[in-house]
Write a structure and sequence with these properties.
With 506 residues, the protein is mainly β. The chain has a single domain, classed as Methylamine Dehydrogenase, Chain H (7 Propeller), CATH 2.130.10.10. It is 6% helix and 35% strand. The chain has three helices and 36 strands. Strand 28 and strand 29 form a beta hairpin.
Length: 506
C-alpha cells in the first residue's frame, strides 16, 4: 500500500510540475512587444482582468506611479519588469536635471524604479526633438535584451538588468551618453541603463526626425525592423533628408545596418514616417508590411536568416496599395492646412490577419483633410494592387491614429471624432460606435472578452466585447490618455500623461 501511495504521490507531483511549466495552463504571460507578436493585432489572451476599478478607493488598483508630465508611450512587460518611455519631470536622479527623455524600468510587483535610461535633448531646432515629450516609443524585449528608439533618433540595445549586474558589452560610454553637450561624463550608477550598442539614424542614415520619433521595433530572428521617422522640416514645407530611407533592418546582435527600402519616399513625405511595420506569412513566405509616409501600403519580402550581414540589402517589394489614389501626389506641401483636399498618411500600424491587412488611413491630424477610413486589403496579391486589392473600406470620423484590434470576427478601432467603432471583419459593416469624451490618439485593447480604451479627455472605458454595445465601467483619470492599454500576467496597465496604473482584481 505504501508503494502504491508513493506512486500516486509521484504522479501527483509530476502533474503539478507539468502544470507549472505548461504555458497553456499558466495564469498569464509577459507582453514584451506592443501588439500581438509580428501581426500587431491589439489583442491579448490574458484572463481574469478587472471589469471595474476606482483609483480613489483603491478598488482593483495594484499600484500606480508617476511617470512625469507628458507620457505618450505604451508600456511593455517582461521578466518581472515594466518598461515605459517618459520625460524627466520627476528628476529621479539629481545628477540629471532638466528636460530629458527617459526610459523607466520598474519592478512589476510594486512599480518601484529599478533603473532608467537618460537621454539628453537634441539641441537647436525643437522640431527634431519636441520639448518635454520624452521618449514616445514603446520598447521591444527579447530574453535579456531591450530594443528602443530614443528621442534623439538612436536605436539602442540595452541590458534588461541595467547596471545592477555590471557594465556589459563593448559599449562603455554610458557616462558620456547621458551628458549634455559641453558637460563632462556623468557618473554611472546601479540605477542607470546598460547600453550594449547604439545606432544613430541621424548620423548614419542622414535622416531628419520631426517633432518626436515614434516606432515600435519588430523582431524576427536576427533582425530588427523599424520605421526611421524621417520627416519634414520645421516649416512643414519640405523633407530635407530626401535620400534617407523610411524603413530599415538592423542586425539585432551588433546594430549593423542590413537592409533599407529603395522607394525614394523623400518628396512624398507629408509629415513623417511614424507607422511601424508588421509581419505575416503569405503563400508560405514571410512578408513585412509597411504603411509608408506617402499614404501607400507596401508588402516587402522579409529577410532570410541566411542573408549576408556584410552588405546592405534593398527590400524586395512584393506589392503596393495606394489607400487614397485620388489624393494629391505632386507638390504635396502646397496642401498644408487644407482641411478639404490633401495627401493621406498613416499613424497607426497595419495589422495582419488571415491573409488580410487592416489599417487606418486618412488626412493628417494637424495639417490635412478631415477624412479617414479603416481599410481591409488582400495581402496575397502581387504588383500594384490599388485597383484589385481592396476588400472593403469603412468611413471613420475626422482622423484616426489607431491600430486595429481584431477578435471573434469584429474589428475595434478609435478615431478623432471621439468614437470607438465595432466593425465586421469580413465585410466592413458597422455594428455600433460608442462616444468617448474626447478624440482618441490611442488604440483599443481586447482582452478577457472586454474592450479597454481611453481618450484625450482623460476618460477610460471598459466595454463588453461583441456585436451589442454594453458599457461595463468608465472612469475619469488624472490626465489625458495617449497610449494603448496593455495586459500581462493577469494585470491591466493604463498609462496617462502623468501616471502608470497597474490594475488587478483585489
Amino acid at each position: 500500500m505504501k508503494f502504491k501511495n508513493n506512486i500516486f504521490k509521484n504522479i501527483f507531483l509530476f502533474l503539478i510540475l507539468i502544470s507549472c511549466n505548461n504555458p497553456s495552463n499558466a495564469q498569464g504571460k509577459d507582453c514584451p512587444q506592443w501588439g500581438e507578436r509580428h501581426t500587431r493585432n491589439m489583442v491579448s489572451d490574458e484572463t481574469n482582468l478587472p471589469s471595474t476599478f476606482n483609483p480613489e478607493t483603491g478598488e482593483n488598483i495594484k499600484w500606480s506611479v508617476s511617470i512625469g508630465s507628458h507620457g505618450y508611450a505604451t508600456p511593455v512587460i517582461s521578466n518581472g519588469k515594466v518598461l515605459i518611455g517618459a520625460n524627466n519631470a520627476d528628476e529621479r536622479n539629481p545628477l540629471h536635471e532638466g528636460d530629458r527623455g527617459t526610459l523607466l524600468c520598474l519592478d512589476e510587483k510594486d512599480g518601484s524604479l529599478l533603473w532608467q535610461l537618460i537621454v539628453p535633448r537634441i539641441e537647436g531646432d525643437r522640431h527634431n526633438d519636441w520639448p518635454m515629450i520624452g521618449i514616445c516609443s514603446p520598447p521591444t524585449v527579447e530574453d535579456d535584451r531591450v530594443y528602443i528608439l530614443t528621442n534623439r533618433s538612436e536605436i539602442l540595445c540595452l541590458d534588461l538588468n541595467g547596471q545592477a549586474d555590471g557594465n556589459d558589452g563593448e559599449f562603455q560610454g554610458e557616462g558620456w551618453f547621458m551628458a549634455r553637450s559641453g558637460e563632462f561624463a556623468s557618473e554611472v550608477t546601479s540605477k542607470d541603463a546598460d547600453i550594449l550598442w547604439c545606432y544613430d539614424m541621424k548620423l548614419q542614415l542622414g535622416m531628419s526626425p520631426h517633432d518626436s520619433p515614434h516606432a515600435s521595433i519588430l523582431l524576427d530572428g536576427d533582425y530588427i525592423y523599424i520605421n526611421t521617422c524621417n520627416g519634414v522640416d520645421y516649416r512643414h514645407v519640405e523633407t530635407t533628408a530626401l535620400d534617407a530611407p523610411s524603413l530599415i533592418a538592423l542586425d539585432k546582435n551588433t546594430g549593423r545596418l542590413v537592409a533599407k527600402d529603395n522607394e525614394n519616399f523623400g518628396e512624398r513625405i507629408f509629415h513623417s514616417s511614424w507607422s511601424s511595420p508588421a509581419m505575416g506569412e503569405v503563400n508560405g513566405k514571410k512578408q513585412v508590411f509597411f504603411a509608408g509616409p506617402d499614404g501607400i501600403l507596401y508588402g516587402f519580402d522579409a529577410l532570410s536568416q541566411s542573408v549576408s550581414k556584410d552588405k546592405i540589402h534593398t527590400f524586395n517589394k512584393v506589392w503596393q496599395f495606394d489607400c487614397d489614389p485620388t489624393a494629391p501626389k505632386k507638390n504635396i506641401h502646397d496642401y498644408l492646412h487644407n482641411r478639404e483636399v490633401s495627401p493621406s498618411n498613416f499613424m497607426g500600424m497595419p495589422v495582419f490577419y488571415k491573409n488580410r491587412i487592416y489599417v487606418t488611413v486618412g488626412g493628417d491630424i494637424w495639417w490635412g483633410k478631415k477624412e479617414s477610413w479603416l481599410k481591409c486589403i488582400d495581402a496575397t496579391k502581387t504588383g500594384d494592387i490599388t485597383e484589385t486589392g481592396e476588400i472593403w473600406t469603412q468611413t471613420l470620423e475626422l482622423f484616426s491614429a489607431a491600430t486595429p484590434a481584431i477578435s471573434n470576427g469584429l474589428v475595434y478601432v478609435t478615431d478623432c471624432g471621439k468614437n470607438l467603432h465595432c466593425i465586421d471583419v469580413e465585410n466592413g459593416n458597422s455594428y455600433w460606435k460608442h462616444k468617448l469624451r474626447q478624440d482618441s490618439w490611442s488604440s483599443a485593447l481586447v482582452a478577457d472578452n472586454k474592450i479597454y480604451v481611453g481618450s484625450r479627455g482623460s476618460d477610460f472605458w471598459i466595454l463588453d466585447e461583441g456585436k451589442k454595445l454594453k458599457v461595463l465601467d468608465s472612469k475619469k483619470l488624472d490626465s489625458p490618455i495617449h497610449s494603448t492599454p496593455v495586459a500581462a500576467n493577469g494585470v491591466l496597465y493604463i498609462s496617462t500623461m502623468n501616471k502608470l496604473y497597474a490594475l488587478k482584481k483585489n
